[in-house]
Specification:
The protein is an alpha+beta fold. The protein has three helices and five strands, in the order ααββββαβ. It has one domain. It has a five-stranded mixed beta sheet. The protein is globular.
Length: about 110
C-alpha cells in the first residue's frame, strides 16, 4: 500500500513538473499551450523571460461538437493587459494548435 502511494505521488509530481516547464521548442517559439483537467486550456507566451498565460474554458469529449471545444470570449477585454494588442496573433496560434476535427473553437459572450 505504501509503495503504491509513493508511486502515485511520484507520477503526479512528474506530471506537474512536465506541465510547468517548457520544452526547448516552446522556448524557441516563445509560446505554448497546455491543459489542466477537462475544463481549462491555457495559452502562455514568453515575455521578457517570464511565461504569461491566459485561461480558456474547454469541454473535453463534448456532446455538442465532434470531440473537444475551446471557448474564446468575444469580449477580449476580460483577458490580461499584455494580451490586449495580441488578440489576432493569439487566436491564430490557437487555431494552429487546436485543429478540426479534434477541436472546435467557439467564440462566446
Amino acid at each position: 500500500m505504501t509503495l503504491a502511494l509513493v508511486l502515485i505521488g511520484f507520477v503526479l509530481t512528474a506530471l506537474t513538473i512536465n506541465a510547468t516547464f517548457a520544452t526547448k521548442k516552446q522556448i524557441k517559439q516563445g509560446w505554448k499551450t497546455y491543459r489542466e483537467g477537462k475544463e481549462a486550456h491555457f495559452y502562455a507566451e514568453l515575455i521578457e523571460g517570464n511565461w504569461r498565460s491566459i485561461q480558456f474554458d474547454s469541454e473535453w469529449y463534448s456532446k455538442n461538437a465532434p470531440r473537444h471545444i475551446l471557448y474564446i470570449k468575444k469580449d477580449w477585454s476580460s483577458y490580461p493587459d499584455w494580451a490586449q494588442d495580441r488578440k489576432e496573433i493569439i487566436i491564430d496560434r490557437l487555431h494552429q494548435k487546436f485543429k478540426p476535427p479534434t477541436f472546435t473553437i467557439i467564440e462566446v459572450e
